Amino acid sequence: MFQSSCVRTARTASHLTRQASQVRYSSRVVQEHDVLQLRQKKPYAFAKQHLSPILRPDTTIKLDYGATLQGSDLIGRPIPSIVTDSKGYPVRLAEVTLSQYLTNQPRVATPIYPQDASLIVSLLDINVPVPGEDPEADAGPVMELFEAGTGMGSLTLHITRTLHGANPPVPPNLRRAMLAAPYKRGLLLRNTATDDSPVCGDMPHAPELDSPELEAQLQAYRASRRAILHSLDVKSSTSRKAHGVVQGFCRGRYVLDVDFHVRTIKSFMESRFAENGRQPFLSHAVLDLPGSADHADLVVEALKPHGKLVVFFPSVTQVMEFVVWATETKQPLHAEKTIELMPGSWAPGFTDAVGGREWDVRTVTPRKAKREAATAQTASDGDAGASDVVAAEPNTVQVCRPKVGNLVGGGGFLAVFTKKLPNSSQSQEGEKVTSEESAESTPSEG
């Protein structure tokens, strides 16, 4: 009995030491409007993981086993740390990764999974200097990218993370006000946008700020940006959900790096061409929508020379149809490559879909060994005279195997094109090289 008491005392002291070290060495604390990864652990059961809602003091978070947490109990705590839910089970607080945040969102559209979005960003090869680092870039035009098919906002967040460093910092008071403000009313279309639909303004998801000073500050910041992503969708509900997803990550850090548009590609492009005299203005473009060839001609016209056009297709036959369209309509494009996206697998429930095949690698204690250890511990506690009886540590075994019965997602094809130079002689030279390469790859007769 004395030995068991000492063990429990040592464990309690160790737990308190860990808590103290967390408070002392944690890099930051939970703030209002954060989103966290919550890991709930019940004894003799697998841990349950959850994605918290956007935290506010009055937020009630529902967990497994009928337990709950209050947002007011989490705000102000260090990350990482451990709290206790309403049922007395420990819950570990941790930062949520971008892939966890996106994969565990409620679905309103089929997302571009994180592993595929990362590949698209890598193919675009975006390199932007911070303000003041490159005077030539600061004096040049704004870098503009285009995304058609906003969807869940997955690719939107991946691209804006790359562009974020090129823009000046958002004033803290403006950022806090935008997170707390509701949306302005009357800005969205009730039906799917068409070429003749009225324009929802340059900010269809504008916040209802408290003062004219904040509104002026917002407009001044938007005018000072050096890199912008234009994300377009024809459905107001989808675009509004995607805006909420982007604003919910890292307390709205990247939401001002993107301009959302609820309109058609033709409506957007023709309005920009009317402003700049049909000059190309896009550095890169990504299309993820049905019938890409029906809308791509205006996007190609808006691309700057050497700009990349990345088009997502569910099947390789659709890639062939797009290539045939580009050839027959003589689009100024070089077909660089076509890449098959490999599907990934992950377990049901809370997941981290970063690609690849997930394996189960862990150390476990067999149930039989647990029962034997518990029996030995009970015997040692009940025999007061047997002070030399020590309960044996249960034997552990290692598990190493691929997980089966998992969800499979992702896949498809990416077609990558580059805009040709406007000089016709260079374009003809490029076409000649392409034809010569094709001839070299064809076996000769005889």
UniProtKB/TrEMBL annotation:
Low complexity bias (residue ranges): 374-387
PROSITE patterns noted in UniProt: SAM_TRM61
InterPro entries cross-referenced by the UniProt entry: SAM-dependent_MTases_sf, tRNA_MeTrfase_Gcd14
Protein's GO biological process: tRNA methylation
Domain of life: Eukaryota
PANTHER family assigned to the protein according to its UniProt record, in alphabetical order: TRNA (ADENINE(58)-N(1))-METHYLTRANSFERASE (PTHR12133), TRNA (ADENINE(58)-N(1))-METHYLTRANSFERASE, MITOCHONDRIAL (PTHR12133:SF1)
Protein name (record): tRNA (adenine(58)-N(1))-methyltransferase catalytic subunit TRM61
Native source species: Plectosphaerella cucumerina
